[in-house]
Each structure stands twice: as structure tokens, then as C-alpha cells.
Amino acid sequence: MKVTVVGAGAVGASCAEYIAIKDFADEIVLVDIKEGFAEGKAMDLMQTASLNGFDSTITGVTNDYAATAGSDVAVITSGIPRKPGMTREELITTNANIVKTVAENLIKHSPNVILIVVSNPMDTMTYLAAKATGLPKNRIIGMGGALDSARFKYRLAEALDCPQSDVSGMVIGGHSDVGMVPLIEKATRNSVPVSEFLNEEQKSGIVEATKVGGATLTKLLGTSAWYAPGAAVSELVKAVALDSKKMFPCSVLLEGEYGLNDLCIGVPVLIGKNGIEKIVEIELSEDEKAKLHTSAEGVSKTNGLLEVNA
Ligand SMILES: NC(=O)c1ccc[n+]([C@@H]2O[C@H](COP(=O)([O-])OP(=O)(O)OC[C@H]3O[C@@H](n4cnc5c(N)ncnc54)[C@H](O)[C@@H]3O)[C@@H](O)[C@H]2O)c1
Ligand SMILES: O=C(O)C[C@H](O)C(=O)O
């Protein structure tokens, strides 16, 4: 399998590192617009191969899409990250131009590629990539929910004082501070609903901490996070590589599913060799449904700021 990662910054390099360490890809190509930057990151990462025990090859190129030809999967992380106090939505003007150009360049050289969009505001950038490239919806995956769910599990385990491997939970909805919908009533500890262990105040604390997970890290780091984002992307790429049909919440173009149309937003999907193999429509409570629809209104409003030239 050949994987391209566009943007060799914090998130792109972390994606490449985790993909390499998990050792399922033959070839990883890092692309950046900054002269020599991707080449340097690739060389540094390749010098970890004997230490970390992987055989994937990593190469870096400066804006040379010919080197990405024949990619099975391409991850788009190019664009600016937010600074403390900003929302993801404020990045739209700069990142829309970058994501559109990058997506078009990628499919020119890899017409069968599966795109994973990471750049923020992610749901809107996924929608933009879908509209700009015209790729079938199974081949455009927005990564947000896999990360938000990992943060949800971190908060659940913290409150339950248990190992993260004991908890299960999922976050759907938009990848934004206000739009995430952590499905707290469906979360479990070893199949037992967490409501059996946690009171209402504890549960709403977990939900709120999960929703602002990215903002909390941005405040601490001065820029946004990269380890968990990179790990989350690598799990999606691995599910494609292994055709595992694992379920993740991902941003996908909805055409009536969950009563929503003409937007990309996080819902559970199965990931396999064709990208999104299936959108899974789970039963939501009235409260969960209402929150998902409110979140969708926010995403649609942000989409409205795009000038999409399909
Ligand atoms: N969806 C998510 O869950 C998630 C998680 C973390 C970060 N992000 C987003 O990912 C993006 C990248 O974050 P980061 O921390 O890696 O930023 P960064 O600044 O460290 O890296 C971005 C890289 O993109 C490169 N770049 C810019 N324009 C380019 C172009 N046209 N072609 C190729 N490369 C280009 C830059 O040179 C830079 O190296 C941000 O928009 C951030 O908000 C999303
Ligand atoms: O918070 C951000 O701006 C980056 C990313 O979307 C995240 O959730 O870490």
C-alpha cells in the first residue's frame, strides 16, 4: 500500500510516524510546500526504522505530486492550525484554498485514491474536498470522530478510575467545540452502562471536557495537538489497508442518512478497502437526535462560508 500525507507539520509527521510504526504500508510519501521540510522529516523518520522496527519506506518531496502517483490513500493535513482562543471555524479562509488545491492535485496523479481530510474546520473541508473533486462519497473520509472518541474514552477512564481498555464510547456530530455529541448514555465500562457508576454531574463533566478537548490542548501547547490526531489517522488508514471493516465515527457526505442532507458530519461508518464501506444508522434517543441536528445546523452554516466551485 502507498500512502501520501500532505502537510509535513506536526500532524502530518505524526501520521507518518504512526503509520510507519504500525508497519502495514509499503511506502509513505510526505509532501509539504516548504522547501526541504518534508524531505527533512522523512529522513529523520527513516532514521527511526531500525530503532522502531519497521520496513515501510518514507520519502519527502516539496510540492511534487508526481511522487504521489498511484497512492491508495492520501491524508490531507496541510493548512494552518488554530492558536489559543481561536475556533477551528476561523481557519476556513486560509485552509479552504489549500485543501481544494491539494485535493485536486492528489486525484490528478492518483485517480483511485481514498482521501482522508484532517485540516480544519474538518467537516467543511471534507465537504469542500467532496464537491471539488467529485469523488464518490465512499472515498472521502473526514477524520475527527475517531480522535474525539479517543478523548472521550480518556475522560471516561479518568472519571471511572479504570484502564482505558475497559471503556467504550463514541462521539458523533461536527468536529467543533460546540458541535460534538459524545454519546454518554451509550458509553459502557465492560458492557455496563457508565450511568451505573457515574452521577449526572460527573457525566456532564465528561461530555463538556470531551467537547473542548482540542481547545484545552491548544491552550496548553500554544498550537493544536498532534499525537492523538496522528494516531487516529493511522487507525483509519490501517482499517483501509487491512480491509478490517472496523467502525469509527467519521465525517461523510450524508444524503438522507440520519435525516440529514448535503453536508459532511461525523456518524458511525465501517472502514475497509473501499474507504467508507457503509454508513451505520444506529438508534439515537430523541435528545441525541436533537443534538446531532443542532450540530448539523452549525456545520451547514460554516459550509455556507465556502465558495464551492465543483
Ligand atoms: N481533524 C482533526 O482532528 C485535526 C487534529 C489536529 C489538527 N488538525 C488540523 O490539521 C491542520 C494541520 O495542523 P498542524 O498542527 O500539523 O499544523 P502545522 O503548521 O504544524 O503543519 C501544517 C503544514 O502544512 C503545510 N502546508 C501549508 N500549505 C500547504 C500546501 N498548499 N501544500 C502542502 N503543504 C502545505 C505547512 O508548510 C505546514 O508544514 C490544521 O488545520 C489543524 O487545525 C485537525
Ligand atoms: O483543536 C484543534 O484545533 C485541532 C484538532 O481539531 C483537535 O481536535 O485537536
Summary tags:
310 residues; alpha/beta; Rossmann fold; L-2-Hydroxyisocaproate Dehydrogenase, Chain A, domain 2; six-stranded parallel sheet; three-stranded antiparallel sheet; 14 strands; binds nicotinamide-adenine-dinucleotide; binds (2S)-2-hydroxybutanedioic acid
Can you give a write-up of this model?
Keywords: NAD, Oxidoreductase, Tricarboxylic acid cycle. One of its GO terms (molecular function) is L-lactate dehydrogenase (NAD+) activity. Catalyzes the reversible oxidation of malate to oxaloacetate. Substrate binds at residues 82, 88, 120, 151. By secondary structure, the protein is an alpha/beta fold. The chain folds into 2 domains: 2-143, 3-Layer(aba) Sandwich (Rossmann fold), CATH 3.40.50.720; 145-304, Alpha-Beta Complex (L-2-Hydroxyisocaproate Dehydrogenase, Chain A, domain 2), CATH 3.90.110.10. The protein has helices at 10-22, 37-46, 49-52, 92-109, 122-133, 145-160, 200-211, 213-221, 227-241, 286-303, and strands spanning 2-6, 27-32, 57-62, 73-76, 114-117, 140-142, 167-168, 171-173, 180-182, 188-189, 192-193, 246-255, 261-272, 275-279. The strands form 4 sheets. Strands 3-2-1-4-5-6 form a 6-stranded parallel beta sheet, sandwiched between helices. Strands 7-10-11 form a 3-stranded antiparallel beta sheet, covered by helices on one side. It has a 3-stranded antiparallel beta sheet with strand order 12-13-14. β10 and β11 (192-193) form a beta hairpin. The protein is globular, with a radius of gyration of 18 Å. The chain starts with a strand and ends in a 7-residue tail after the last helix. The structure holds nicotinamide-adenine-dinucleotide and (2S)-2-hydroxybutanedioic acid. (2S)-2-hydroxybutanedioic acid binds at residues 81-82, 88, 120, 147, 175, 214, 217-218, 224-225, 229. The site of (2S)-2-hydroxybutanedioic acid has 12 residues, from α8.
